[in-house]
Amino acid sequence: MEIKANAGDYVSVKLAKKEIKGIILESYDKDVILVKLESGYNIGIPKENVFEINVIRKYKEEKKEYKIPSSKGKPKIGLIVTGGTIASKLDSRTGGVKALTDVGEFAQFYPGLFEKYDIKISSPFMELSENMDSGHWKLIAKEAKKMCDDKEIKGVIITHGSDTLHYTSSVLSFMLKNLNKPVVLTFSQRSIDRASSDAELNLECAAKFALSNCAEVVIVGHASESDDCCYALRGTKVRKMHTSRRDTFKAINCKPIAKIGGKVEFLEEYNVGNQNIEKLELDDSFSNKVALVKFYPGQDPGILDYYKEKGHKGIVIEMTGLGHVNSGWIGKIKNCVKSGMIICGTAGTIYGALNPKVYSTGRELEKAGVLYLKDMLSETAFVKLGWVLGHRNWKGKEKEKLLENFAGEFNEFLAG
Fold this sequence. Notes:
The protein has helices spanning about 105-110, 110-115, 135-150, 165-175, 200-210, 300-310, 330-340, 360-370, 380-390, 400, 410-415, and strands at about 10-15, 20-25, 30-35, 40-45, 50-55, 75-80, 90, 95-100, 120, 155-160, 175, 185, 215-220, 230-235, 240, 250, 260, 265, 280, 290-295, 315-320, 340-345, 370.
């Protein structure tokens, strides 16, 4: 039969024994009609089972102008919107989510935030987090610096896609030197259109933490699958641990900094650090000639030659156990180090710290020139290596700087 309805149209679909209503979605199978039901669920119906489709309401994309409400006199918070699920909405034509079209639209979806706080909002770009690179990190860092320098702003929230959020939180921890107020990255695993969305609680808790006396880059998100509270997690010691759970981010080899419910409750003795002591400095040097390589059994060490030929200055190898790779790699590693490359080791186990002294392989690798980064997370090590190598004035001091604890990237107890 000929289908006269288009994607986005609200229709009634007559089947043999029943009639259903919903929105027609784009289908990648010409023989299947996709419908989003009023319950929110999507179903696929073979065309051969459909007797008739009647259009109840044609799809019409409305162009709106969104105004950001003013809440003068209330605590002022900076908000940097960069994209991701938290800045997305349902696309009625595809059944998926798409980016908000205007920063003012963000205020429409999260009115509670704008009612409680005086929000200064900006958006240097709108991008999915898997498409981000060091250029995006620098733009975020510059915008955060600008907002932190505004004496009226108490703290800064950055909304961001969750998939690479821990890379961004790590690199900002290095780029924002002498941080003088909280910089809080937050996210959502499920868009605001969904009843199970985690976006509002994450934003609410991020705002509370942005008003705290913490001068650090953190990620704030659900502490559990329930909607009761969030954790604030150190930007260099956090990792995404689940593809879809709302409490996907976990503190690694350390405790969360704080629990955020009705108030901000610090969970460990916390040193406020440089807040309002020194002027914030933007230190966004970065070299893109770095790589992160995961070692696996039987892997060809020629991968090191590939990066060497491409002109890379440093490689982080995610190793097995306490810090091992196949002994056949040792010769290649020696050649790379001799050529001037920095070869670092991190743990593939996530938890725990490396110790090359226990087994002979580790001792040989250390002798070959591998720099063991203790309990530093691989993602943090990758961005720190790029940041360190971006400083030309640190030439000859790279290993020393990589082992310096700039932003809590080492757990001193575990690292020994």
